[in-house]
Write a structure and sequence with these properties.
By secondary structure, the chain is an alpha/beta fold. The chain has two domains: 4-30 and 76-291, von Willebrand factor, type A domain (Rossmann fold, 3-Layer(aba) Sandwich), CATH 3.40.50.410; 37-74, no CATH class. It has nine helices and ten strands. The strands form three sheets. A six-stranded mixed β-sheet has the order 5-4-3-6-7-10, sandwiched between helices. Strands 1-2 form a two-stranded antiparallel ribbon. Strands 8-9 form a two-stranded antiparallel sheet. A hairpin with a 6-residue loop joins strand 8 (220-224) and strand 9. It is elongated.
């Protein structure tokens, strides 16, 4: 039985993200992600302008007037949310923690998916697979995904994106739309990620806090690596220290962006100090332009 405060927060997330999906992302998700093709819908009477190749000759012969087959796009997709729950997500200097932002993003994507009758699945990982929720449809199922994204307590501290991708490929035999939500503080996953993108439609959702890009001038501070627990002192009053930190951070994020680009993997850059709706809308519009 979930505590009352947990239930109330899930309800708030449900209300907020459902409204956001309806008011802001209505039609965007549907127009961006393709189904697997077209499927037969119905037979109707011929209307001048219909393509002759769609005439159903058997029905036409029986009815004595022309009828055509109508097809619709097969919309059903499987959306997998692969979420990094390592300890580096327990950080945030702006609106919220990176982990909380990741959970809210998962909610928006999950509600967008079920609004289009798609299946949604969930994989939580650290340096191992922590939780797997097989893809299904329906509001009750999505609320479970939201609950896991918000309140699942992982045992691991580190990040192993390779293990997450290996698990994804082992459980998902058919093509899926895969959102990998992480700060991507890991290495060695590049080759496997490229392979996964050939099988699935992979989108990298990178979450960044402004303090990971730039240090403020606040004197000597003690920092701790959230994943390893290593602690060290840094003198932020020294301009060269701040410049070096900023330079190295920007270099790391640019290298990551180039990596995704070289694999043709779309990247949604999310920051804890900027409303994520802006980044999601840019992503949807970019995808829509590309489909034209």
């Amino acid at each position: 039985m979930l505590p009352k405060d947990v239930i109330n927060r899930i309800r708030r997330i449900h209300i907020t993200t459902s409204r956001l999906v309806t008011d802001v992302f209505a039609g965007q998700y549907h127009s961006v992600f393709k189904g697997r093709g077209i499927e037969f819908d119905e037979v109707r009477e011929y209307i001048p302008g219909d393509e002759i190749r769609f005439i159903d000759w058997n029905v036409t012969a029986r009815m004595g007037s022309p009828y055509v087959k109508k097809y619709v796009e097969e919309r059903e997709l499987t959306v997998m949310l692969v979420v990094d729950m390592s300890r580096s997500g327990h950080f945030g200097s702006a609106r919220q923690l990176k982990s909380g932002l990741a959970a809210e993003l998962c909610s928006v994507l999950a509600f967008s998916a079920i609004q289009n009758n798609d299946k949604v699945g969930f994989i939580a990982f650290t340096d191992k697979i922590e939780k797997f929720v097989p893809p299904r449809k329906g509001l009750r199922h999505v609320l479970r995904v939201v609950r896991e994204a918000l309140y699942f307590k992982p045992k691991g501290r580190l990040t192993d994106i390779t293990a997450a991708i290996e698990f994804l490929n082992s459980v998902m035999k058919r093509r899926a739309v895969v959102f990998i939500v992480s700060d991507f503080y890991a290495s060695g996953f590049e080759k496997l990620l490229s392979v996964a993108n050939k099988r699935h439609d992979v989108i990298a959702v990178t979450i960044t806090d402004p303090r990971e890009l730039e240090l403020p001038d606040v004197g000597i501070i003690r920092l701790e690596d959230a994943e390893t627990g290593e602690r060290f002192l840094i003198d932020t009053s020294r301009e060269k220290v701040r410049e070096s930190y900023n330079r190295d951070s920007i270099k790391r994020f640019e290298e990551r962006r180039r990596l995704f680009g070289s694999m043709n993997i779309d990247n949604i850059d999310i920051r804890t100090d900027i409303p994520y709706t802006e980044s999601l809308m840019r992503f949807f519009k970019m995808r829509e332009r590309r489909r034209r």
